[in-house]
Write a structure and sequence with these properties.
333 residues, alpha/beta, ten-stranded mixed β-sheet, 47% helix, globular
């Protein structure tokens, strides 16, 4: 029997009806700078557009295509992709996102330098439907510097790691498997599970482009209201379990109310942006119960008021306040 050597790196691309973006994504992988040995596993989850045709148009031998006859959903697809991956390091990217050409050269360098690090990630730019950059940089956590260390508590509070910039050791991915059935997302699940076990390294460079458009998965799970129960299921699970060190467990416990309050506020803001005023009000009130300091948040108070008086009255009130405050500001100057 001939043994095929395993590649150093595996890229997993779960594909479902994003054919129009897929060439941009795959090209960004195959155009990586440097002499890296990698494979690309693209899983077509029974797409109804021309995803299969796009995949056939790439003749690169490093591409391996898995086709589903029946749609299995994002959870089943990513579980399968990770089990099929053979690389020492694994990256997962959605087909509407893309890498910068220096992605591998930056991240592999950190894994070699820091064997204790389980996951490496970087900053991302935001791009629109046409691939144009709308936001140059997204990181708000690391103040323009590289960071190495544990990020569990910060991640529980806010999902600030953007999936297309992430690459992790194979062992870290596999230990987190499987993604639980019914979970509305997988990126935050994986980073949280890995943060419980490993140090992370943040590279203060833009490593990928994250595409924001009307059919984003993260937008759809807000609209169909599956994100909220998934978030609290995951938080409840983590808080029902012990961390591997007593120091991390104590830090997590001390931050519990802040974490739940922050997630309530995050969900409330998303519901408010979608016009789901009843759900937004419920989550704003939950945030206030968890964090009394939130009472001082002017945005929270304004939005909560809007859910009671209605959007039309709220917008009229905003205009009235603006009309009064503008001349007062000129007087102060």
């Amino acid at each position: 029997m001939i043994t095929v050597p395993s590649p150093q790196i595996s890229f997993i691309v779960p594909c479902y009806n994003y054919a129009r973006y897929l060439p941009d994504c795959l090209s960004s992988i195959f155009n990586q700078r440097g002499d890296f040995d990698f494979e690309v596993i693209a899983i077509d989850d029974a797409s109804t557009d021309n995803t299969a045709e796009v995949l056939r148009s790439f003749s690169d031998p490093r591409l391996r295509v898995i086709s589903h006859r029946i749609n299995e959903g994002h959870v089943g697809t990513i579980n399968e992709g990770l089990r099929e991956a053979r690389g020492e390091f694994i990256a997962r990217i959605d087909p509407d996102d893309r890498y910068r050409s220096s992605f591998l050269s930056h991240v592999i360098e950190k894994f070699v330098a820091f064997p204790e690090v389980g996951l490496v990630y970087g900053d991302v730019s935001i791009i629109d439907d046409r691939g144009q950059i709308t936001v140059e940089r997204s990181d708000r956590e690391h103040k323009g510097r590289d960071f190495k260390g544990n990020e569990l508590v910060r991640l529980l509070e806010r999902n600030f790691i953007c999936a297309p910039s992430v690459i992790a050791r194979r062992t870290a991915w596999l230990k987190a498997l499987p993604v639980p059935d019914g979970l509305a997302f997988n990126d935050w699940y994986f980073t949280l599970m890995m943060a419980r076990e490993h140090e992370f390294y943040f590279i203060n460079k833009v490593l990928a482009d994250y595409r924001v458009h009307s059919s984003n998965h993260h937008s759809s799970i807000v609209l169909n209201k599956t994100e909220e129960p998934s978030i609290f299921w995951l938080l409840d699970r983590i808080f029902s379990e012990q961390e591997k060190t007593s120091e991390l467990e104590k830090e997590k416990r001390r931050a519990r109310r802040r974490i739940y309050g922050s997630q309530c506020l995050n969900i409330a803001d998303k519901y408010f942006g979608c016009g789901y005023d009843t759900d937004a009000r419920r989550c704003y009130l939950m945030a206030l119960r968890y964090q009394s300091a939130s009472r001082l948040d002017a945005s929270l108070v304004r939005h909560l008021l809007a859910t009671y008086i209605g959007r039309k009255a709220y917008e009229s009130l905003k205009l009235s306040i603006k009309a009064v405050s503008a001349p007062l500001a000129r007087v102060r100057r």
